[in-house]
Specification:
By secondary structure, this protein is mainly beta. The strands form 20 sheets. Strands 1, 2, 3, 4, 7 and 9 form a six-stranded antiparallel sheet that branches. The longest helix has 13 residues. The radius of gyration is 32 Å and the shape is globular.
Length: 974
């Protein structure tokens, strides 16, 4: 708040000023012809279309200075009726002091989303009531202003939808305030009937049949042009967009500007076209206009500010204040967090921290997470950002940088003072407490180097060292190494432009641009020195450099990579010749002419080949579509083609090639790739389909194995882990985690199981589990058995899938993989966290309850290794260790060792009893064993990372998932 005092006017001058204020037509409401009653409210109408949390300022007039309480109401019918407004920020609503005219200025933040405002004309009325007497004063009322909470992204395109791309128009800074744009559309099954275009509104609402459009005059500042095509069937494309900044002031485009202080940290506000920066030496937090470089706001502090973060909804800024410097020796220390309302850029609250604050993240719900900068082995704390109450804590190393996942439930941390550096994760639970989810499986094997950033898509994290790792709510899939950036200098900062699929990275004296999905470097801009912070706003890229001498330099560049919002990966395809009766003496010609791209001509595409699928490419990127190779060994070979477009997206194709044998049909072209990472795969026993989970999209999808297309999908809210299909293929069951698996969680874990009807592909039900679900099997009768992922010695439960009722339970070790016997009355399990590993069995009784049938008679004598699969004939089981055991309802004859089969740990098993094969994935090999004798028959080197194998209609399908895509390699047996 701030006091507004009138200067020393003469009495006559004061009267003239008051008359002028009363008579002029302005946006201050609340003046009546009759004398008004105090406390009096003077309200300033927000300018322009508002969205989400609306910040508003008003003045409270009270001649005797006594306090008042505030009530805020909103109307969507021009003031005929009012409702109570939801206020989520500002200076509060009670005990606010008034002052002489023009009063004391205060702010409020109205949550329009919570009050159900979609796209309406609104007005606000503020009524002040004197606190001491309860007497209501004269209200203040805004003019009508627009609130538009329409979705910021268009709905997903329908099947067969058209495409659109922008061919011309401003990008970055332009002095033309009425710019023109050109665009083109295409439709694979019809014609384009016209386009929807517009500025700063998505989806756009202006219809035109032309492929060019000129905007009406625009105000200076950032804008975005959107265009959607519509075909003759009325289907619309995804909106293409282009950001730009209108600047009619005559400034030099992209000139750098200086800020007169050494900035400590900086964050970028994409909604307000400004930066926020801490000036530790000046004990202040600054707001800086991104167009002019002018300091437009300042919050002074009693202590030195350091790290800062914007809440995801851009309503608040949280600034860490240091009481003393960081130290390894003075314990956990203490500090403060300043809460700044971004609507008014004023401090609205400050609270104490029980740690010396080093880095900070915050959720929209006001959970503030602070890492400690002192005390060596110390704590990370969570706080209520409204009350300042400490909510939770967990152990952490001092001076850890932290970053929050877009789901606002996971926080990654990177330590800065240990060697080797490592990353770890913490879970923000529903009540705001913190749970440690452990660190990465690597300790010096990869480049961590002391900082970590979560991608805007939420499916991976990037470290300061330049290595990329998975991000997954499932502990076993989290923080796994994916790839390395081609950097030679550690990353100082990153920023993600999700819409254009670009990551910006400061690496020494350059900013590099990567495709956000493939992490392929696209282009770069040179800096005049080493950069500190990077961000993109309004078609511009801003980089902060601190050369010393009391200034910070902001260098600007036009955003260099547009089209990523609608760009699709190339479709890879190739043929080879000769294609039958191949031997090691044949020189095979590979032709990628079948490859295509929806946005670019084939001549622009780049190609490279990995002829034996070992992960090392045999050719460099080239625009030559033809290559040749001669194999030196007989057997099944997998040839991989990658096709890359100019924006760094990649399409892949893997084809099996048989050399010197005649076990498979040749050629067979049933292989395909999906442009998503999938976790679980369940084949349909009756149709040529399979079902997959797509964690990054929170979807379960149906894949047509004949066409390689996802035909149907369902959104599933929650952290998906294991999945199973009922033996008759009618019902899918998906385990949903409430929190990650916890070794110390006891038996009180909770979770859910989603039930999906396969025929209609509908999510029909969800029921709760009293365990943290790890693995799942289900019977045709609707008995669902779930093993627990937490609590060490825990329980396995059975449920009625129709009612969700718990039917039975038995004791089990946590993190057990389970397998259903084909008679649907027996469940085998294998524990994963004990040494030696063991297998045991449970009986599903007639009422669905569970009875433990004991474990194997071996404890270290044979290779169990943490997983078990039941043979479809029901007479034996195979363990992950590759050993085979009898399966029998007779207790003394059950789980008796039969043979050793696998030569390495078995990743997954496929069954072909009619052909006499057991098929295994073992390390980088596909192996085939005799179904009855368990003896090895064939072995093929197929390359790394294959995870699933199954057989349908004599076709062997193997899946290989990366962070970018999933390959389905299909081989048909003769």
């Amino acid at each position: 708040m701030r006091y507004l005092n009138l200067p020393a006017f003469s009495f006559l001058t004061l009267i003239l000023v008051l008359i002028l204020l009363f008579s002029c037509s302005c946006q201050i409401r609340g003046f009546d012809e009759d004398p008004y009653v105090t406390p009096r409210v003077l309200v300033i109408t927000p300018v322009g279309t508002q969205k989400g949390n609306v910040a508003l300022t008003y003045c409270l007039v009270e001649f005797d200075g006594s306090p008042a309480d505030i009530a805020v109401n909103f109307s969507t019918d021009g003031g005929q009726t009012y409702q109570t407004a939801t206020i989520t920020g500002g200076d509060g609503l009670t005990n606010l002091a008034g002052g002489l005219f023009p009063g004391i200025e205060y702010s409020i933040v109205w949550d329009t989303v919570s009050d159900g405002i979609a796209n309406d004309s609104c007005r606000l009325k503020i009524v002040a009531t004197k606190t001491s007497t309860g007497k209501e004063g004269t209200p203040g009322e805004t003019l009508d202003f627009a609130v538009d909470n329409s979705p910021t992204t268009p709905p997903p395109p329908q099947a067969g939808s058209p495409t659109v791309w922008i061919t011309d128009g401003p990008a970055g800074i332009t002095d033309d305030n009425a710019p023109s744009f050109s665009y083109m559309g295409a439709d694979s099954d019809g014609t384009i009937s016209g386009y929807w275009v517009g500025i700063d509104a998505n989806p756009p609402t202006t219809w035109t049949a032309s492929t060019t459009w000129v905007s009406s005059p625009l105000a200076d500042g950032p804008h975005t042009f959107y265009v959607m095509s519509q075909d003759n069937e009325g289907k619309k494309s995804i909106a293409a967009s282009r950001e730009f900044t209108v600047d009619t002031s005559g400034g030099v485009p992209y000139e750098s500007f200086n800020i007169p202080c050494n900035i400590t940290r900086m964050v970028f506000d994409k909604t307000r076209f400004c930066f926020y920066a801490t000036d530790s030496g000046g004990m202040r937090t600054l707001r800086i206009d991104a167009l002019t470089g002018n300091i437009t706001g300042q919050v002074n502090h009693a202590y030195a500010p350091e790290s800062l973060v914007i809440s995801p909804d851009a309503s608040k800024l949280y600034v860490c204040l240091l009481i003393s410097g960081h130290s390894s020796y003075h314990g956990d220390g203490d500090g403060r967090v300043s809460v700044i309302s971004l609507g008014s850029f004023s401090q609205t609250f400050i609270f104490d921290t029980l740690v010396d604050p080093f880095d900070v993240v915050a959720t929209d719900e006001g959970v503030v997470v602070v890492s400690s900068g002192s005390g060596q082995w110390t704590s990370i704390h969570s706080y209520n950002g409204i009350t300042g109450e400490q909510i939770g804590s967990a152990g952490i190393r001092q001076a850890c940088y932290i970053d929050m996942h877009p789901d606002q439930k996971q926080v990654y941390a990177a330590n800065t003072d240990t060697s080797p550096s490592d990353i770890e994760k913490f879970l923000i639970q529903g009540d705001g407490t913190l749970a440690s989810m452990g660190d990465s499986p690597y300790h010096g094997d990869h480049r961590m180097s002391g900082n970590v950033w979560v991608s805007a898509t939420g499916d991976y994290v990037v470290t300061r060292g330049g290595d990329v790792y998975t991000s997954s709510p499932v502990r076993s899939n989290d923080m796994h190494y994916l790839m390395s950036l081609p950097n030679t200098t550690a990353l100082s900062d990153t920023d993600f432009h999700k819409q254009q699929n670009v990551m910006m990275s400061i690496e020494g004296t350059a900013v590099y641009y990567y495709n956000i999905k493939t992490m392929i470097r696209i282009t770069s801009d040179a800096l005049s020195g080493s950069g500190m912070a990077v961000g993109s706003i309004g078609g511009q890229v801003f980089v902060a450099l601190v050369p010393g001498g009391g200034i910070t330099v902001i260098e600007r560049f036009p955003f260099p990579v547009f089209g990523g919002d609608t760009n699709t990966p190339p479709v890879a395809g190739f043929s080879y010749s000769p294609d039958t009766n191949l031997t090691i003496s044949d020189l095979i010609t590979f032709d990628a002419t079948q490859s295509s791209d929806a946005q670019e001509d084939g001549s622009v595409l780049l190609y490279r080949w990995d002829f034996n699928n070992d992960g090392t490419y045999d050719t460099i990127w080239t625009n030559n579509r033809i290559a040749s190779h001669q194999y030196s060994t007989n057997g099944l070979q997998l040839a991989r083609l990658e096709v890359r477009d100019s924006l760094g997206l990649i399409g892949t194709k893997v084809l099996p090639i048989e050399i010197g044998t005649s076990l498979f049909e040749q050629p067979f072209h049933g292989s395909f790739s999906l442009d998503v990472h999938i976790d679980e795969v369940e084949p349909d026993p009756t149709r040529s389909y399979c079902y997959v989970t797509i964690p990054s999209q929170q979807k379960v999808a149906e894949v047509n194995l004949d066409t390689g297309l996802i035909e149907r999908s369902i959104g599933i809210s929650g952290m998906m882990e294991s999945m199973c299909l009922s033996p008759d293929g009618t019902t899918l069951y998906v385990c949903l985690l409430v929190s990650g698996h916890n070794y110390y969680g006891g038996d009180d874990g909770t979770g859910q199981v989603a039930v999906i009807d396969v025929a209609g592909f509908e999510h029909t039900d969800t029921f709760d589990t009293q365990v943290d679900p790890f693995d799942i099997v289900a019977t045709d009768a609707g008995v669902v058995v779930v093993s627990s992922g937490s609590g060490q010695w825990t329980v396995i439960h059975s449920y009625n899938a129709t009612t969700g009722e718990q039917l039975g339970s038995a004791g089990i070790r946590h993190l057990c993989n389970i397998s259903l016997h084909p008679d649907q009355n027996q469940v085998y399990s294998a524990n994963t966290d004990t040494s030696p590993s063991d297998i045991e069995k449970f009986i599903i009784n007639g009422d669905g309850s569970l009875t433990s049938a004991g474990d194997s008679p071996y404890h270290g004598d044979h290779r169990m290794n943490g997983n078990v699969w039941c043979a479809p004939t029901g007479d034996f089981v195979v363990t992950r260790g590759g050993d085979v055991f009898n399966s029998s309802m007779v207790g003394g004859a059950d789980m008796i060792y039969l043979a050793s089969m696998g030569q390495a740990a078995v990743t997954h098993i496929g069954w072909a009893p009619a052909k006499g094969y057991i098929l295994t994935l073992e390390s980088t090999y596909l192996r085939m064993y005799d179904y009855n004798l368990y003896t090895p028959l064939h072995e093929y080197s197929i390359g790394p990372n294959f995870g699933k194998i199954f057989v349908l209609n004599n076709i062997i399908y193997m899946t290989r998932s990366t962070a970018l895509n999933t390959d389905f390699v299909a081989v048909k047996m003769k």
